[in-house]
Amino acid sequence: MTKLTHLTATGDAHMVDVSAKADTKRIARARGRVVMAPETLALAVAGQAKKGDVFGVARIAAIMAAKKTSDLIPLCHPLPLSSVSVDIVADESLPGLRVAVEAGVTGKTGVEMEALTAVSVACLTIYDMLKAVDRAMRIEGVELVEKQGGKSGDWRRD
């Protein structure tokens, strides 16, 4: 069984010491979706939500969330992110919006939590922007898709 790195031998939570690790290029990709009524999706796509540009606000929220991940997740290291890209697309087959984030850093630890936090906050922002017309929306499928770099190597969801 793999040892949990955020626990000491006695089971206490602690922040992992990464000072001896080499700086390497690391990338993480995550995704999620907000399922909504077709009429709600049409409203978002048309840019007619009362709170404003759903896509633009959610994109900025995702970037801000990635930058603040260590403030939200107790044992995360603050990272000097080199990039965060956010893609939000309408999918009439859901119906809803699909969110994908890629985060990058050259550092001692990975950016999986930053990518996942960015997707989560983008989805929450979409919900907030549209909740006045559709409280039944669902946030689904928030997951890590891929990570590159670091001691453990690359990983990709099948």
Q: Work out the helicity level.
A: 25-40%
Radius of gyration in whole Å, from Cα?
17 Å
- The oligomeric state of the chains shown is single chain
What is the count of helical runs?
4
Q: In total, how many beta strands? A: 5
Order of helices and strands: EHHHEEHEE
Mean pLDDT: 93
Query: Strand pairing plus helix content: what structural class?
Result: alpha+beta
Strand order of the largest sheet: 2-3-1-4-5
Q: Which blocks of ≥5 consecutive residues have pLDDT under 50?
A: none
Distance between the termini: 22 Å
Note the beta-strand portion: 25-35%
Query: What overall geometry do the principal axes of the alpha carbons give?
Result: elongated
Strand count, sense and barrel status of the largest sheet are:
5 strands, antiparallel
Task: Give the topology.
Elements (H helix, E strand, L loop, with lengths): L23 E12 L2 H8 L8 H14 L1 H4 L10 E9 L4 E12 L4 H19 L7 E11 L6 E2 L2
Antiparallel strand pairs: 1-3, 1-4, 2-3, 4-5
Helix pairs in contact: 2-4
Function: Catalyzes the conversion of (8S)-3',8-cyclo-7,8-dihydroguanosine 5'-triphosphate to cyclic pyranopterin monophosphate (cPMP).
InterPro entries: MoaC (IPR023045), MoaC_bact/euk (IPR047594), MoaC_sf (IPR036522), MoCo_biosynth_MoaA/MoaC (IPR050105), Mopterin_CF_biosynth-C_dom (IPR002820)
Subunit structure: Homohexamer; trimer of dimers.
Description:
With 158 residues, the chain is an alpha+beta fold. The protein has 4 helices and 5 strands. It has a 5-stranded antiparallel sheet. A hairpin with a 4-residue loop joins strand 2 (83-91) and strand 3 (96-107). Helix 2 runs antiparallel to helix 4. The longest helix has 19 residues, at 112-130. The chain is elongated, with a radius of gyration of 17 Å.
